[in-house]
């Protein structure tokens, strides 16, 4: 009969608010003894080395400017499969034995690609990291510790989408997926809000969000209610603004992310188009994709008309609609002096004078100035619902 694996309970962290009223002074009381915690860290390090030595699991240092970064050298690969191949072919057992040497495991945790996971001793295919640990311990008699809080976080890259293989949530950035994994690996729990975290360091950083006060930016007059918001502002706006949007290929710096994306496409031929999961439409940047999802698929309508029951996605949409209620027509055609309530409607009207017949029937070749005329033609003459 298989022996039941006993796993440790999460460590609950208590935050003493009274002791933390001064900025950056957060007193944390840990229920578990520090000596036990240090022992857990040593066991985690031992487990990680055994996993790397006896499987094809690939460690990921981070997601850099070019791609997924190797833990043993400076190479980066846009495709995780290429990183796996590189690690297996370029780095030997001696190199893997030094994995995480000199790293503070209290802050650092192993990020492992377990796509197509196999035991290299017996070549068995294994589905999860937990099953691999049990397999190495029971079948191959390796020293594997199963009574600890696991600080090894697994990822699978077996589809086009970047998804959590545990709950199948989809993400567009590896960083966002990393933050999500705290939900599944609740090693350290905040007593205030019950949020869980992989490492104690992550929870300590999170604890600052519960300490409210007045934190003034060191570079401008802005004031924030938490020290964490202050530091984030200073990093994004003042101290690291020129490195946040740095090209990973040529190190050129940009003021905003959209300029960097345009540079990647035009100069390096890197096109990271985002595909909508609902309608398969593609977008060149995250902002356009987010707006599309909220407007069309999530039906985000937070702007309400005060004159009727209609709701709108943006304030500009509401402003455009409100013309119906005011009757104001301030956009006048210079040719025929017709007036319109919206500038967009005037632009569409001007195509009549320019004889701009951009809507063409693919069956008979007849062209139309307005889309509504083309739709009417397609329905009446060709039976097409467009």
Automatic annotation (TrEMBL):
Pfam families according to UniProt: zf-C2H2, zf-met
PROSITE patterns: ZINC_FINGER_C2H2_1, ZINC_FINGER_C2H2_2
Cellular compartment(s): Nucleus
InterPro entries: Znf_C2H2_sf, Znf_C2H2_type
Domain of life: Eukaryota
Record keywords, A-Z: Metal-binding, Nucleus, Repeat, Zinc, Zinc-finger
Main localisation: nucleus
Domain C2H2-type, first and last residues per copy: 68-96, 188-210, 215-243, 274-302, 303-330, 331-358, 359-386
Entry GO CC: nucleus
GO MF annotation, one: zinc ion binding
Name of the protein this chain belongs to: C2H2-type domain-containing protein
Organism: Euphydryas editha (Edith's checkerspot)
The organism's taxonomic lineage, starting at the top: Eukaryota, Metazoa, Ecdysozoa, Arthropoda, Hexapoda
